[in-house]
Each structure stands twice: as C-alpha cells, then as structure tokens.
Design a protein that fits this description.
heterodimer, A: mainly beta, six-stranded mixed beta sheet, five-stranded antiparallel beta sheet, B: mainly beta, seven-stranded mixed beta sheet, four-stranded antiparallel beta sheet, about 0% helix, about 55% strand
C-alpha cells in the first residue's frame, strides 16, 4: 500500500513553460514534505521542502504547494529549463524527535523539450 | 566539503551470499539513512542511524541489518541474498541538530546485482 503516490510516471513540457508535478499521500500523520530531483547514476538531490503548518514555499523557480485537506502537494517549476529534465521524487515524513522516516513516492520523469 | 561517499559503487553476488555496503556521511553529519531503490518500488526506507543507535526501521526482513560507528560512518549488511535484493542502495546523511527534520544529502549509491 503506497502511502505517497505520484500518479504521473512521466511529463513532457516545453522549455520556458510551467512544469507541475503532483503528489498525493494517504497518511494524515505526515507533517513534513520534500521534493528531490534525481539524474541518472547520481543520488537524489534535495530541491525544496514544506512543513504542514504552511501551504506554500518558494525558492527561486521552484514553488511547492500543500493542500492538507486534499492530502495533495504539487511542485511548480517556472520557467522550465532543459537542465530540469530528471526524475522528481516526492517524500513525506512523520517521524518524531527520536527518529525520522521519509516515505518516497515512485517518481515522475520530467522531460523539458527545447 | 566532501559529499556522501558509498563503496563499492557496483557489486555482483550470487544467491545465498552476504554483502556489506559502506557509507561515509558528510563531515559533521550524525544521521545516516539507508534506502533501497528498485524500478517497481521506488525508494524504500531501510533504516536510520543516529549517534550509533538505530532510530527507525522500515519494513524489511531481518536479513537486512546495519550499524553506525563512532565516526558516523555506517555499514549495511544483507545476508542470504535473494534475486529480489538486486537494487540500487542509497545512503543519505543529515545534520539533524535541531528537531527531527533534516535535509538529507544522498550518496551516488551502490548498485547490487544478485545472480
């Protein structure tokens, strides 16, 4: 049973346009969410995070939106660049002060076309 | 500052054997987490170590074990290898000095193939 879902295995976007990657979760105890980007033959790289006390966090071209009632978050990339082509993972955490446990989604492969 | 390093990068074993993977976290990071990545399952959490203690464990059989040393380096061991253990094993380190949430920095992974 997947607690974190990314229902789009792949997404293609034209350079300069907006990329929207979606993520849904089922565990209402999750209170911290992250997005990672992964290039082939490399480990995931942290992009941006959001705490459940917020509904939006912005960092440069990347914005994450959180809708707690819908248990949904999205990552917006504006404008999209060819270098953004990678696999994007959504992750959620419900750990306590003792330990942390991140649950990852299956990933969405983003292709930004020049 | 050097990143997370994992050794070896590639490993080929046969069923029934055991394997030990190593991870050196970023200097100063005391939390080390291990993940298994497979095409069908994505990244799945194995366990987290902090100050030489296992703090959290994912849903994996007891054949998967780990430990952390006083210098924060960590090893992961898989005994009695099965074909399904073929995967990319990723290690991530985190500073985690305040609160429980810490951005994780991933290593390049160890690609394990079980024949």
């Amino acid at each position: 049973d997947q607690q974190v879902k990314q229902n789009s295995p792949s997404l293609s976007v034209q350079e300069g346009r907006i990329s929207i990657l979606n993520c849904d979760y089922t565990n209402s105890m999750f209170d911290y969410f992250l997005w990672y980007k992964k290039y082939p033959a490399e480990g995931p790289t942290f992009l941006i995070s959001i705490s459940s006390i917020k509904d939006k966090n912005e960092d440069g071209r990347f914005t994450v939106f959180l809708n707690k009632s819908a248990k949904h978050l999205s990552l917006h990339i504006v404008p999209s660049q060819p270098g953004d082509s990678a696999v994007y993972f959504c992750a959620a955490s419900e750990g306590d002060n003792y330990g942390q446990n991140f649950v990852f989604g299956p990933g969405t492969r983003l292709s930004v076309l020049p | 500052k050097a990143g997370v390093t994992q050794t070896p990068r590639y490993l080929i074993k046969t069923r029934g054997q055991q394997v030990t993977l190593s991870c050196s976290p970023i200097s100063g990071h005391r939390s080390v987490s291990w993940y298994q990545q497979t095409p069908g399952q994505g990244l799945q959490f194995l366990f987290e170590y902090f100050s030489e203690t296992q703090r959290n464990k994912g849903n994996f059989p007891g054949r998967f074990s780990g430990r952390q040393f006083s210098n924060s380096r960590s090893e992961m061991n898989v005994s009695t290898l099965e074909l399904g253990d073929s995967a990319l094993y990723l290690c991530a380190s985190s500073l985690r000095t305040s609160g429980r949430h810490g951005e994780q920095f991933f290593g390049p992974g160890t690609r394990l193939t079980v024949l």
